[in-house]
Records
---
Amino acid sequence: MPGRLPTTSDFSSHLDLTVTPPPQSQAPVNVLILLHGLGDTNTSFTNLGKQLALPETACISLQGPTPLPFDLGGFHWGDDIIFDQATGQMDFDTGFAKITRILTSMIRTLVDECGYQSREIILFGFGQGGMAALTIAVSFDVELGGVVSIGGPLPSSIAASNTSSSKNRTPVLILGGSSRTLITPDAISKLGAKFQFVDYKKWPNKVADGMPRSRDEMLPIMQFFSRRLRSRAGVPEGSIEIG
């Protein structure tokens, strides 16, 4: 049986999130959890979920749990705020214990109360949100539907931890610009040490790790979704999935 459409009341009242149902009143088979970048809110990724209009897929756009200080506006996913003294920029990699607890609880709710399998839950994150998505995927022993991380490498605390004898089977798509990118060869190597399936896409002629702005930049993401999203279209009611 496919899962039911999640509602905001399924999750902690302390969380700020939106739920976008699948297009055309389709029954949800998958859930895409969207994690915005550092300093943003969940509004932009609520709109992204609507624009994607992925078939048979409910989108949950979660807002970072902690507001930025000094009236900067926006929210972040880290356990702390650290400024680089050389550049004045905020550090992305400041620990992810709090959001790991939050996302673990959300995924367990989707599985235990809403009826999804872990394989039907995909995470999509930008920048620091991508780092949070990779962190939660590493922490799960079971295979999730996948992780798409744009400009978000594996956090240093995870990369430095002892590697188990078997790699995580959740597939990862990681994307970055061709210059001024955090997705370096070393970052890709560290991902490969933790995940069995890592696909890296470098956007040519793109400075820094921004969100996709063209059809060509969006293509590898949509191809990943087409491989990983499940469908029950045309499956008779009451059928049992094998394997």
---
Amino acid sequence: QERLSQVQSHLASSEVDIPRGKESILRKSPDDIVVTCALRTPITRGGKGGFKDTAAPDLLVHTFKSLISSSGIDPSLVEDISVGNVLAPGSGATEFRAAALVAGFPETTALKSLNRQCSSGLQACVDIANAIRCGMIDIGVGAGVESMSSQYGPGAVSEFSELLDGHREAKNCKVPMGVLSEQMASDRKITREAQDAFAARSYQRAEAAQKAGKFRNEIVPMKVKWVDPKTDEEKELVVDKDDGIRSGMSVEGLAKIKAAFKEGGSIHAGNASQVSDGAAAVLLMKRSTAEKLGQKIVGKFVCSSVVGVKPLLMGIGPWKAIPVALEKAGIGKEEVDLWEINEAFASQCVWCVKELGLDESKVNPNGGAIAFGHPLGCTGARQVSTLFNELGRTGQKVGVTSMCVGTGMGMAAVWVKE
């Protein structure tokens, strides 16, 4: 009996020593999957902005070169690269492999492209993190890129076969996102006023952040050739900031914009994400590897989640994915310092934030895709650089990135700033 009491005492004291909640994910381990560099190009307006004449692989070359120079990593040590892309034929697999070679990665660095719609950039980062965690590789890059200027349009989705069209839920996968989001807003009673208020706040936050220089540390300027649409004159310019951010946006101004998908509807160009161009990249490895190489650790990847929802309810994806990611991390929503939730449409963001009970001041504090754009394959990787930049600037630790995903999915990931 005395021995049993001793064992129970030891077990009880051991349980006290086991970190839980936020403390558990703040704890450092040699096996942590860490980020040593996360950066992005500016995000520019599709068809009008600074990158309208720049091909997606060229954006990627510049992003890769910047990642190598900023991190100081020996490119021959990078074993695999994963690139998220939505619109390019074949998700750009051939061109992106070529882009990696041009950027300075040797032929020994493998590359794949992938497409999980709007979460492609995040999925690319997660795939690399998981490959490192399971021992397949030691060092890798998760990236995302999109040129919506050159590849956005009806050709992005092929015609459904008779078999697919004959299945009701499957057929819903091709309903345009604007149309289904309008229906969701109506069904869930998300008013236009609430959407416009959210959108105005996104613009105002982004404008203030840009003026304060808050994005400078995550953006790598790029020199490009740009054709003036008025004169057809080719010019050389340096793109060094997001050019979709509009100044002076207000609820009153947004209220004057005509609904885009339904007469008397609530969704319009001012409260939905912009069509945009851009690229982003994230360098990942184990903490032990980073320390051995002298790489500065920006933060770490904790875990991720991916879920499915009804195709017509695509917008609720974050609402379903975020709790799953938090449960895997062993933390509650109150322990998250910052949320980067993609603003595909104000309607779905308003609903998700409300249903999850999140503190709005912690959600996209520097604006989101409504204000500066959503280059589809890029966004998930872009959010990582934006999240770590703001966590570092404000001295906070725990962040979550998330987005809804076309055809009815959601994805989320938990990150910790070093």
---
Amino acid sequence: MHSLPLLKQLVAFAFAGTELVGLAAAEAENPRRTLPRATRQVFWRITIFYVLSLFLVGLILPSDSDDLLGSSGANTKASPFVLAIQAAKIKALPSIFNVVITLSVLSVANSATFGSTRTMQALSLRGMGPKFLSYVDPKGRPLWCIVIQLLFGLLAFINEASTGKEIFNWLLALSALNNLFVWG
């Protein structure tokens, strides 16, 4: 895949998630107060955690590093952040940062579960989806929506197929296109 179309696809994919602020605000006690505050926090979190951290990695890690060349997607040899920490010769921090990355992935999975299940349930309640998706257990969990979301999570194992990279790129493109429709 050429780099410019891939870059556009990854940007469209990465843009997703900010709508979760609205979903979370819908369940807040005082949305008029919490929504503007949460929106401001999203801006600062993106600035600090993405822009500033990538700037620092760019200052520390040489762009022609052998560890970065020839790796992409699931074939990535190491995290650029861990490589930058190793280049800075900080001993214990690479392992700690790998734990942070793992916890971040779990946090994204939790957010995706929250967003997708609440959206499926809301569509069902408005008559735009199957009625059984509107079921909520006594603890407030939309169980059938969670089951469907977890089944879609099993699509990750497609990457183990011989054509896994191609299938993953198609799924990524479909997800990015969906984001453009949602925000368009």
---
Amino acid sequence: MIFLVSTNLCYANPNCTTLRIPVSATASNEVFPIPTGLDYSNPAAISALIETIIGDGITTYPLIPTTYDGTIVARFCEPEVYIANRSDVVQYFVSGVTENKLYWSGLGYPNGFDGDMYSTIAYASKQGYPTFVIDRIGVGETTPRPDPIVQEQVNLEEAVNHELVMMLKAGTAVPGRAFNRIVYVGHSYGSILGNAQATNHPTDISAFILTGFGVSIIPVAADLPQTAPFPAELYSTRFAGYQPGYLVTSSEPGRRGYLWGKPGSYDEAIFELDYNQEDVVGLGELLSIGGGLKEAPVSTAPVYIVTGDSDDVFCLAATCGDGASSPQAQACTLFPKASACGYFIPVGTGHMISLHYSAQQSFQMYHKFLASHGF
């Protein structure tokens, strides 16, 4: 049992700052066989290509050194509750595809949908954790946009995360603040990037919270076509000038079925908000998923997995089951040296963990896990 001494508590409003952080990162990205003359405006053709490549699991593609030089836009918040033994810990948030940093604050800032109800950032702040949330390369305010196929892949994005983590530890990401312990909080593709970081840079992260995560990419490919992936530039004037390899989920029923799960488990208004302000996904991100979802043989950081029982991305037919046979429990096999690996399966919850009625319960469970391991 953990007791908090009252002299270590200080209450104030959260103090948030938007940061623009120059980053340079290099990694070996895959060279995928993109058909000549691929019709990006044909959702069936795009879905078939994705399913062929990530459903293969055998073919090894050539690698090419790839660099990203740009400015990562992040939001850093000092917590509204100060707790001395958490002042050197920062929660580092990385969103999934078609989402940006607003996912972590209830789809809005400074005010999210229904106040703090769906804000992971606000919940962490109330528990005394500093937070650092980024726009991944290709989404939100981060610039420039990389090539959506050649650059925007798991390996290079993980390398960008590694550089940012080193900066957080060195005190060069947040002026005047250096952190000894980094808690990586990912969602969906962001969780896959966390898996990749545990594999490629096993000493970077002190603990992993992986939401919307599972052990297999087969369901990802199998159920993706219902979303009707379509070029962002042709879909909305918001994306004018985007290269064809930047995609959105153009089918509202498809996005609902793939990402949101059972009707009644979420507020219809927050679904509509998410659909109307969705961000993009680079085709290279979807094609390279398999490169991130694999065993991290050295990392000893504790891992906690939160995936809903109706998640259609990592569970076939949106049926995840429970207990040791569930994809959530099986995902622990990817972290054989972890000092601990636990999981939580929120009932009646689809892929968008932070945006369901069960959000507060999910936030509570992962913070309980962190506290039990000294964070």
